[in-house]
Amino acid sequence: MSIAIDGPSGAGKSTVAKALAKRLKIPYVDTGAMYRAIAYAYLEGGRPEDLEEFLKTMPLKISPEGIYYKGKLLDKELRTSEVTMLSSSLSKEAPVRQYLLEDQRRLGQDHNVVMEGRDIGTVVLKDAAFKFFLTADVDLRAKRRHEQNIEKGLESNLEEVKEDLLKRDQQDLHREIAPLKQARDAILIDSSHLTLEETVEKMAQYVEEGQ
Ligand code: DC
Fold it and tell me: What string of DSSP letters covers 142-154?
């Protein structure tokens, strides 16, 4: 059974997806981290001009445990604002999306998973048993992301976080390939006035009652 969770940046997808996966005792797959890993590798590689050639030789390994770059498990380096903005720009490029699609489908088809991103319900796992579109008011999304950054020990400025979110929303919503969009059969969850626990509870109820 696969569960797709899509939605704009900062809606709490990762936290909610992780908690839901834990509750359902199935793995969690963060596809945003994959786009971020490509952005990280691209920067490390000196912003190579030929994207397709770069993708062919990129030393990334995507596994259920995480993403490795030259054998090193990537974590905090994926959360810098440079990598964040670049991941959104690179995610517009067809070769990048194509490169990741296979890995994402493999992870979604071989396992029961909770997979989160922007195009999981519309493209990657069209047949997911449950699809959710998680959103929240932009000011709340910015505030949550800002607090998360501080918790992780990253530098953060609320106004900048909000500007970056709005810019990424624009890029992710309006790109040609696989834009951020609610799948027709997705359940809309607005978490603006819900706690994390309430959001997870609501989604888990849909899953547990719908099985
Ligand atoms: O979820 P995130 O913020 O970690 O994602 C980083 C970027 O990757 C986001 O701005 C858009 C892109 N992305 C995408 O295009 N498709 C996905 N399924 C997941 C992320």
Answer: HHHHHHHHHHTT-
Mutate to test the pocket of ligand 1, among 29, 35, 105, 154 (most ligand atoms within 8 A of CB): 35
The answer to whether the predicted template modeling score (pTM) of the entire model surpasses 0.85 is yes
| Residue to substitute in 118, 170, 172, 174 for testing ligand 1 pocket (most ligand atoms within 8 angstroms of CB) | 118
Q: Which residue is closest in CA terms to ligand 1's atom 15? A: 91
Give the tokens for residue 152: 């992780």
The pairing of strands 66-69 and 72-73 is antiparallel
What does 134-181 look like in DSSP terms, one character per residue?
EE--HHHHHHHHHHHHHHTT----HHHHHHHHHHHHHHHHH-SSS-S-
Query: Shortest CA distance to 125 belongs to which of 61, 201, 29?
Result: 29
How far lies 206's CA from each of 8, 187, 211, in Å? Answer: 21, 9, 8
What is the tens place of the pLDDT at every residue in 134-165? 999 999 999 998 998 899 888 899 999 999 99
